[in-house]
């Protein structure tokens, strides 16, 4: 998940692949999953990779009424122990949230949980964290009212927020970028303007990847020095290895068909 620092990634929530996964929304990277048993196997391998890295993983039961329910990252924003429950930007995904909010409520009892109201819309997949600097994508799923609510929370926490315009050919900010460490952003040429992230804190940088490896730019850095990477993106892989990270490759082909990336499938809290 994109809203926690590397050292805060101790526990993760995931959700099992529903039998209806072939009806998941698909418009950007894919045209819809075709092999649900393979999608389930890929998701199991993903959860196992997190467990193997020492993360405590909880898998919520599938919800066959919500084909996109595995993409838990979109449903809650957890920042430094504070929780903002967004109104998801696509109407078919709004009712995925209750089991996730109930779980978070139980796990983080005593934490103040805020919910978005009115016309505010946001998918958690539009938020990217680099250390204590935050970026939010203004996208087809995240509107200005949603961004304002995130801004209020980050102002309260003393963190800066910068807005990135998401091009029409992309779903979320994290569909096209990630922070494999607290100092590096991976982003594809041609999707985000070179100055979009602004001046970064000392020691931080954007590593620009070829446009054709856009999907590979979504990675999950872990506290043990590992980084989860989708199979098939050689420049991304070499870049991460050159940074001294221990790369763990995962086949994401069926999850990609539903426009899902690595970070979409987990919520760190
Ligand atoms: N299929 C993921 C999404 O559109 O939200």
Instruction: State the separation between the terminal residues, measured CA to CA.
Output: 9 Å
Low-confidence stretches: none
Radius of gyration: 17 Å
Roughly what is the average pLDDT, rounded to an integer? 97
Tally of strands? 15
CATH C-level class is Alpha Beta
Classify the beta-strand content into a percent band: 15-25%
User: What is the H-and-E element order?
Assistant: EHEEEHEEEHEEEEEEHEHE
How would you describe this protein?
It is built from five helices and 15 strands. It has one domain (6-268): L-arginine/glycine Amidinotransferase, Chain A. The chain is an alpha/beta fold and 269 residues long. It has a three-stranded mixed beta sheet, with helices on one face. The protein has a three-stranded mixed beta sheet with strand order 3-4-5, sandwiched between helices. It binds glycine.
Question: What is this structure, in a nutshell?
Answer:
The chain is of the alpha/beta class and 269 residues long. It has a single domain (6-268), classed as L-arginine/glycine Amidinotransferase, Chain A.
List the keywords.
269 residues, alpha/beta, three-stranded mixed β-sheet, 5 helices, binds glycine
Write the layout of secondary structure elements.
Elements: E1 11-15, H1 36-52, E2 56-60, E3 77-79, E4 82-85, H2 97-107, E5 113-115, E6 127-130, E7 133-138, H3 144-157, E8 160-165, E9 178-181, E10 184-188, E11 205-209, E12 220-221, E13 226-230, H4 234-242, E14 246-250, H5 253-256, E15 267-268
Parallel strand pairs: 1-2, 4-5, 7-8, 10-11, 13-14
Antiparallel strand pairs: 1-15, 3-4, 6-7, 9-10, 12-13
The chain binds glycine.
């Amino acid at each position: 998940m994109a809203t926690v620092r590397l050292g805060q990634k101790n526990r993760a929530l995931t959700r099992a692949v529903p039998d209806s996964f072939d009806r998941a929304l698909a418009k950007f990277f894919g045209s819809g999953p075709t092999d649900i048993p393979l999608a389930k196997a890929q998701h199991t391998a993903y959860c196992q990779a997190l467990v193997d890295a020492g993360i405590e993983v909880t898998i919520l039961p599938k919800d066959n009424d919500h084909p996109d329910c595995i993409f838990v990252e979109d449903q809650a924003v957890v920042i430094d122990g504070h929780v903002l429950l967004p109104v998801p930007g696509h109407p078919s995904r709004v009712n995925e949230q209750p089991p996730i909010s109930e779980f978070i409520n139980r796990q983080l009892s005593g934490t103040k949980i805020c919910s978005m109201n009115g016309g505010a819309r946001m998918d958690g997949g539009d938020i990217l964290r680099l250390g204590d600097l935050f970026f939010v994508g203004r996208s087809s799923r995240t509107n200005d009212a949603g961004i304002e609510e995130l801004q209020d929370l980050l102002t309260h926490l003393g963190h800066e927020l910068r807005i990135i315009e998401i091009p029409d050919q992309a779903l979320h900010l994290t569909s096209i970028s990630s922070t494999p460490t607290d100092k590096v952003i991976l982003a594809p040429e041609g999707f985000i303007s070179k100055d979009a992230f602004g001046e970064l804190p000392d020691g931080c940088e954007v590593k620009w990847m070829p446009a054709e490896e856009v999907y590979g730019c979504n990675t999950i850095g872990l506290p043990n020095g590992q980084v989860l990477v989708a199979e098939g993106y050689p420049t991304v892989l070499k870049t991460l290895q050159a940074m001294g990270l221990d790369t763990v490759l995962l086949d994401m082909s069926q999850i990609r068909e539903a426009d899902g990336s690595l970070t979409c499938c987990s919520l760190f809290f």
